[in-house]
């Protein structure tokens, strides 16, 4: 049966297995062992928004797996000039073994997944960014040796794809999560309620003072996500005071790590000093996009062809 990765909830039963597999394949590959589990398989990658990491990490990851990836910008394929999502999904499913989709909307993502007969992987939409959050949890696991019981804090835009996937991801991983954001940027209730169902502590607050006190992991994301550009000036005003700086890092546990999915805008959501500082793991995190997606693609393929 085909299996998609649209939301973090799609991996609620095997997140640990995917992270373990990703770490194992990373280690094997670095030791020089071949990891060609998807030999001669093809990944189609549809992009409706720009990307550096997602595009390159999926393509290089597929190459390491012995397969091949095709970059499909929505500007250059018929989807961009009105061909339906349904027909695009049905046609691509006849050529490729898996589809990665970076979509403007979560509705379009779900529609593509509904009509595709091959696995569909969400490479970011307006509601979630599951590949990034699985990557981030893998990176935390590598640096801290565990996930369960850690205190995670996210500052900034609480109503974006990263905040929503962090809520679900922390819940599934058994990590307590605090989202610190101005009230009008609080997450959608659905994600907060779903996270709570996993029994972790979920706090949503606009209290910046002590936000990072004694925490294990600090994360942020851009204040202006793709699609929010017209609100840029307003958002910069609204998020005043939410910049993660050295003082905020010092309030956290001594061995706390800093995460950012990138791209980062220094001086806004984080200072460059912190992002490039000794507690930051942002470049391990960027590298791990490739290893986590290798684990994800192998898992989805195995599910279809056990
Ligand atoms: N973090 C992330 O998804 O980066 P890109 O937009 O460069 O793919
Ligand atoms: N929240 C950001 C993530 C970029 C990888 C955006 O959607 O633009």
Q: What would you note in describing this structure?
A:
Helices cover 41% and strands 14% of the residues. It is α/β, with parallel strands linked by helices and 306 residues long. It folds into 2 domains: 139 residues, Rossmann fold (3-Layer(aba) Sandwich); 155 residues, 3-Layer(aba) Sandwich (Rossmann fold). It has a 5-stranded parallel β-sheet, covered by helices on one side. Strands 2-1-3-4 form a 4-stranded parallel β-sheet, with helices on both faces. The model has no long low-confidence stretch (mean pLDDT 98). The site of phosphoric acid mono(formamide)ester has 8 residues, from helix 2.
Global geometry? globular
Number of helices: 11
CATH superfamily caption of the largest domain: Aspartate/ornithine carbamoyltransferase
Query: In which order are the strands of the major sheet placed?
Result: 7-6-5-8-9
Fraction of residues in helix:
40-55%
- Which radius of gyration do the C-alpha atoms yield? 19 Å
CATH topology type of the largest domain: Rossmann fold
Unreliably modeled segments: none
CATH architecture of the largest domain: 3-Layer(aba) Sandwich
Blueprint of the fold:
Layout: H1 15-30, E1 42-47, H2 53-64, E2 68-73, H3 85-95, E3 98-102, H4 106-115, E4 120-122, H5 130-144, E5 151-155, H6 161-173, E6 176-180, H7 189-196, E7 202-205, E8 217-220, H8 232-238, H9 246-251, E9 257-260, H10 272-275, H11 282-304
Parallel strand pairs: 1-2, 1-3, 3-4, 5-6, 5-8, 6-7, 8-9
Helix pairs in contact: 1-5, 1-11, 2-11, 3-4, 5-6, 5-11, 6-7
């Amino acid at each position: 049966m085909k299996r998609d990765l649209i939301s973090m909830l799609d991996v609620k039963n095997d997140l640990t297995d995917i992270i373990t597999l990703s770490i194992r394949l990373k280690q094997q590959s670095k030791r020089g062992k071949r990891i060609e589990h998807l030999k001669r398989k093809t990944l189609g990658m549809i992009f409706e928004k720009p990307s550096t990491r997602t595009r390159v990490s999926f393509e290089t990851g597929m190459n390491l797996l012995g397969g091949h990836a095709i970059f499909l910008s929505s500007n250059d394929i018929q989807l961009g000039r009105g061909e339906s999502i349904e027909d695009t999904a049905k046609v691509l499913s006849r050529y490729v073994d898996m589809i990665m989709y970076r979509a403007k909307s979560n509705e379009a993502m779900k529609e593509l997944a509904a009509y595709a007969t091959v696995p569909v992987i969400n490479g970011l939409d307006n509601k979630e960014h599951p590949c990034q959050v699985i990557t981030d949890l893998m990176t935390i696991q590598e640096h801290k040796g565990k996930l369960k019981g850690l205190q995670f804090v996210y500052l900034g835009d609480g109503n974006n794809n990263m905040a929503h996937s962090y809520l679900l991801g922390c819940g599934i991983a058994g990590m307590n999560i605090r989202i610190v954001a101005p009230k009008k940027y609080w997450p959608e209730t659905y994600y907060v309620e779903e996270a709570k169902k996993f029994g972790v502590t979920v706090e949503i607050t606009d209290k910046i003072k002590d936000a990072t006190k004694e925490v294990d992991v600090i994360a942020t994301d851009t204040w202006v996500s793709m699609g929010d550009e017209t609100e840029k000036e307003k958002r910069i005003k609204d998020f005043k005071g939410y910049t993660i700086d050295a003082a905020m890092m010092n309030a956290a546990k001594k061995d706390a790590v800093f995460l950012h999915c990138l791209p980062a805008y220094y001086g806004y959501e984080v200072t460059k000093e912190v992002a490039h500082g000794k507690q930051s793991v942002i470049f391990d995190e960027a590298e791990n996009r490739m290893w986590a997606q290798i684990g994800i693609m192998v898992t989805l393929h195995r599910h279809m062809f056990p």
